[in-house]
Design brief:
With about 280 residues, the chain is mainly alpha-helical. It is about 75% helix and about 0% strand. It has helices at about 1-30, 35-45, 50-70, 75-80, 85-95, 100-120, 130-155, 160-180, 185-190, 195-215, 220-240, 250-265. Helix 1 (about 1-30) crosses helix 5 (about 85-95) and helix 10 (about 195-215) packs antiparallel against helix 11. The protein is globular, with a radius of gyration of 18 Å. The protein starts with a helix and ends in a 14-residue tail after the last helix.
Length: about 280
């Protein structure tokens, strides 16, 4: 279990730092381009900080895969949500974004919540879902993709929050899909519904999160995403996959989860690190 906690924390650090690196690259590209968002993105892809951010995201995802195979889902998802604390701290140093006192408190509280979860977490459940459950999650991944497509074209009010929630639910399905993979052989992966859940939900989550961040409030979009990707998979893991805490530590785990997610919500504005540089 200790190795799984280390990998979950590594995923959090990598993904939180990646957000800032990508923001730096995007800023550099925006300063050089007066064209469309596409041209700015192409320029960003040629900037070292943006490329480094992508690399860190990939390392973070790899660490997440390892942790999901050894830890309860509620621990891993809380750690990933807490990557916003990493983003906030790194952004305060690299992008010179001033953190308010409440945000520093949230960073400390995130750490406390993760510490409680690490102490209370038991081993992951032995269940990896039956064929019906795996097909159901695949259908859900397609369903979220369709709902997001409709929302992106029809909804105007609360668009950022709704798309952020859909992105979060999709990212949650990625975690569930990884957890329910019975093995990593090529033949198993090609015939396993969970493989396609991971692919479809990963693409869906990324596209709709980008759309959400461009549609309105970064805070609303990120907060909705955190709730979607954390709470649902945690409940699913406990109810259907047998995740549990150490004997007698359920209240401690609950407190740690609430502290981690609640503090991440307080840091939601760092879901996109491209804020105006604080004036000194």
């Amino acid at each position: 279990m200790g190795v799984g906690v280390v990998f979950a924390l590594c995923a959090s650090v990598c993904m939180g730092t990646a957000t800032v690196m990508q923001a730096m690259g995007a800023r550099m590209a925006a300063d050089e381009s007066s064209g469309s968002g596409v041209s700015t993105l192409l320029l960003a892809l040629r900037r070292l900080p943006f490329i480094a951010g992508i690399g860190l995201d990939m390392l973070g995802f790899a660490a997440e895969l390892v942790s999901l195979r050894t830890l309860p889902i509620f621990v891993v998802e809380a750690a990933l949500a807490s990557s916003l604390a990493v983003t906030a701290v790194v952004a305060s140093r690299v992008l010179h974004i001033r953190l308010r006192r409440t945000e520093w408190t949230a960073v400390v509280t995130v750490c406390c919540g993760l510490a409680l979860l690490a102490v209370a977490a038991g081993r992951e459940g032995k269940g990896d879902g039956d064929e019906t459950l795996r097909l159901a999650t695949l259908c859900a991944s397609v369903g979220f993709a369709v709902v997001g497509w409709v929302v992106s074209r029809r909804l105007q009010h609360s668009r950022a929050a709704v798309l952020g929630l859909i992105a979060g639910l999709s990212f949650g399905l990625v975690a569930l899909g990884v957890r329910m993979l019975p093995g990593f052989g090529v033949g198993e992966l090609l015939t396993e519904p969970s493989t396609y859940t991971v692919i479809i939900s990963g693409i869906t989550g990324f596209l709709y999160l980008v759309d959400a961040l461009q549609s309105g409030s970064v805070t609303a979009a990120t907060a909705a995403m955190v709730i979607g990707e954390s709470v649902g998979p945690a409940v699913f893991g406990v109810a259907w996959l047998g995740d549990s805490t150490r004997h007698g530590y359920a209240p401690v785990a609950t407190l740690g989860f609430v502290l981690s997610i609640g503090s991440a919500l307080a840091l939601a504005r760092f879901g996109e690190a491209e804020q105006q540089t604080a004036t000194s």
